[in-house]
TrEMBL record:
Residues 121-130 have a biased composition (Basic residues). GO terms for molecular function: mRNA binding; structural constituent of ribosome. Residues 9-77 form the S1 motif domain. Residues 106-120 have a biased composition (Basic and acidic residues). InterPro entries: NA-bd_OB-fold, Ribos_protein_bS1-like, S1_domain. One of its GO terms (biological process) is translation. Pfam families: S1. The lineage of its organism: Bacteria, Bacillati, Bacillota, Clostridia, Eubacteriales. GO terms for cellular component: cytoplasm. This is General stress protein 13. Residues 106-130 are annotated as: Disordered. It comes from the Bacteria.
């Protein structure tokens, strides 16, 4: 059986054979294995590879590098521009995340302020001299 050479820029289908904290190993047609680095899994921030992939998943990948030792670098996000987490149906935009953070931050500030005022002697901490 002749092994098809893995060409830079080609889009292939492969199978996830292993997941690490820095990416996923993909077995390509012909038996070669490449790595999809965690930064190349999706357009969104990937904290945990397991949120996106599991062993034996079939995935479409693009070959983005082949080094002289034969290490193959792969990208899912360049092959599928709209990869989204499997578990999460809705992915909030940056603006939505920022708005949520600011709201929660404001609420935490209010709680801190209330707690601090009560320790200083309640609401009348700024008592006027009579």
């Amino acid at each position: 059986m002749s092994v098809m050479p893995i060409e830079l820029g080609s889009v292939l289908e492969g199978v996830v054979t292993g997941i690490t904290n820095f990416g996923a190993f993909i077995e390509l047609p012909g038996g070669e294995t490449g790595l999809v680095h965690i930064s190349e899994i999706a357009e969104v921030y990937v904290k945990d590879v397991h949120d996106f992939l599991k062993a034996s998943d079939r995935v479409t990948v693009k070959v983005i590098s082949v080094d002289p030792k034969g290490k193959i670098g792969l990208s899912m996000k360049q092959a599928n521009p709209s990869v989204r987490p499997a578990k999460k149906k809705f992915q909030p935009s940056f603006e939505e995340k920022l708005a949520k953070f600011l709201k929660e931050s404001e609420e935490r500030q209010q709680v801190l302020k209330r707690n601090t005022e009560s320790k200083r002697g309640g609401r009348g901490s700024g008592r006027k001299a009579e």
